[in-house]
Amino acid sequence: MPVEAPYDDRLLHQRVVAGDESALGDVYDRFASLIFGLSVRITRDRVIAEDITQEVFLVFWERPLAFDPDRGSLRAWLATIAHRRAVDHVRTEERRRVSVIGPRLFEPDPVWLEESVLAADEADRVRLAVTKLPDGMREAVELAYFGGRTYRQVGEELGVPEGTAKSRIRLALRRLADALAEEEV
Q1: Can you spell out the DSSP letters for 124-169?
Q2: Which of 11, 40, 63, 83 could bridge 49 with an S-S bond, Cβ 3.0-4.6 Å?
Q3: Which secondary-structure segment (H or E) carries 50?
């Protein structure tokens, strides 16, 4: 049974297919932090992660029909491309190091690579759980954890007192923990 993309994804996809550059900007605004964060976690290099983020959106712009909204969400599709590019980069770097240092002096650590992939998968689960939070909580968590804002800055950006921002974030974190714990059962 196919997994259907959300209605917004379908509209954004249709606009990009039609060549609407502002739609690509909307897609970027919506998913850039996810793509960049995932890429940084895997590559451990902000510059490479920026390049991968740019490549992911370029792929979508150049080949929008490669995304099939009947098979899943745009978020998951873009994250999959980013994940693959980041893992490819890590593997290429490992091979380059082996060829420069020599196979006897350097053996790639498969445990590290496996941990990186598992961490990226966990990050995907967390980001998906964040999207299911009520708007006020979701916005507060996104600003604090994905945007690097303080409680005070979150409050200012959302137009609420700092204590309210802090409460929203704490409640959201509890809900996220509960949601993730339910998935593991």
Answers
A1: HHHHHHHHTS-HHHHHHHIIIIIS---HHHHHHHHTS-HHHHHHHH
A2: 40
A3: helix 46-62
Q: Which residues contact 159 (CB under 8 A, 6 or more apart)?
A: none
Question: 1-123 belongs to which CATH class?
Answer: mainly alpha
| 8 A C-beta contact, residue 90 and residue 113 | yes
Look up the pTM and report it: 0.53
The 10s digit of each residue's pLDDT in 107-158 is 555 555 566 666 667 777 777 888 888 999 999 888 887 777 888 888 999 9
For the chain, give every domain's residue range: 1-123, 132-185
Residue with tokens 């939070």: 133
Q: Return the sign of the alpha-carbon dihedral for residues 13, 16, 21, 24.
A: positive
Q: What backbone torsions phi and psi does residue 160 show, to the nearest 5 degrees?
A: -130, 160
Query: Is the domain defined by 132-185 classed in CATH 3.40.50.1820?
Result: no
CA dist., res. 55 & res. 49, Å (int): 10
